[in-house]
Amino acid sequence: MTTTLPGSDDLIRFLDRWRRRRIVVAGDFMLDHYIYGNADRLSPDAPVPVLAVVREEHKPGGSANVCLDLRALHSDVACLGVIGADSAGTQLRSALRKAGCDVKGLLIDRARPTTVKQNLVGLAQHRHPQKMFRVDVETRDPLSADSADRLVATAKKLLRGADALCLEDYNKGVLSEAVCRRLIELAKKMRVPVYVDPAAITDYRKYRGATCITPNRTEAALATGANGQPQSPATLARMAQRLLRELSLDAVVLTLDKQGAMLLEKGGRPIMVPTVARQVYDVTGAGDMVLAMLAASRANGADWPASVDLANTAAGLEVEKFGVVPIELDEVLLALLERRHESLGKLRTAEQITTELAAHRRRGRKIVFTNGCFDILHAGHVQFLREARRGGDLLVVGLNSDRSIRRLKGEGRPVNHEADRVMVLSELESVDYIVVFGEQTPIRLIKSVRPDVLVKGADYRKDQVVGGSWVERNGGSVMLVSLVKGRSTTNIIRRIAKQSRR
Fold first, then answer.
1. Which pTM value belongs to this model?
2. Is 288 a catalytic residue?
3. Is CATH 3.40.50.620 the right assignment for the domain spanning 347-500?
4. Which one of the listed residues 163, 197, 288, 432 is annotated catalytic?
């Protein structure tokens, strides 16, 4: 198997160019009703826990969750489905509209109830909340002919100008075989790619002609008759190849939990796309997140490996949270930055730091900047950097290059070369990023970093700090930090030279 995958830098640059795309989501729209309480005792009349209700909440679920995921990924979303003429349907429509979704495609069918999943969630002995029981209100009957016709007619309107169609199938009767085939045929005529998160069923023929399908390994085994077979890479590849061939797809993405995913493109070989190992708290919603990120990434022009890598990353973040929580685009970007941090450490180029800090800033983090030679690191440096870091959430250190130090201090400096100084600074907890610059002053780097706080030693006046006036004009501030008396690289060098002459 090949492993031709994009690097973190490529994905970060891709997300930095991300644009809004219009995506239609069709399928089984549901309302999730959560009842939270304390479960500290058993019932006296039966061996069951008693839930003492504390609060309740209602959230969009099923296909509606894909809509919320896409909104979190900065997509314009149109909903296409059926709800009942009931209070649950009204709540669901209102919640989706409030989230910014186009709900004109949510059709009312008076013969069907809105699907409601009532979840009882208990907390015992101050532990994490756990789902105790679920009560479903639903029908799985296929849509009536009239409702199916109205749904397809509405799809024709919504798909004009759309960048993708997502089919989120929970086998509740909306995406029947006839409706699926009509929607896929319509989308193909309108040149709109179709991405399918399939139901757990034995026959996938109703998805034939879609662009891509994203079953998990269990669903794929059920649909291909591979139940009970060892889930080796070879078996997974055979399942993917069978689905690709029999359903005339462009790609198959098998989601494999902590193993990531397997991607098979038409005419290609299977690619294993690994994921970052995470603490799994609740897998609910991970498949929805994969579908949303895959469709949004492809709509933004990503190739299949990059789209699957991003989908893996988003789903990994999803499983760390309780319940269904949409993952914001910036959360995905920060996860990629953490991945890059593991490989690069704290050193960045000016281009890299600009992208990363923009993501941090959107998350409300305050950026601090200082600069210097930091030639022979001493207690004065450590105290200065510690105080600088207290000025915000992240500290960026602009480090003079060897050549710029020689211009400033003469041919005998620096004592420690650039790579050594980067390594030593990287070990300080107070330092988050290091950027090496070679200019006479750091003004160009300061304008790239756009710090909220610019820090310099108190041996300067504010009007002497390079970039200070620019930072203040752009809403930031200048902070002067007192220096530790008698601690400087120059003094250390003098003492060493004096001792060497003895």
1. 0.78
2. yes
3. yes
4. 288
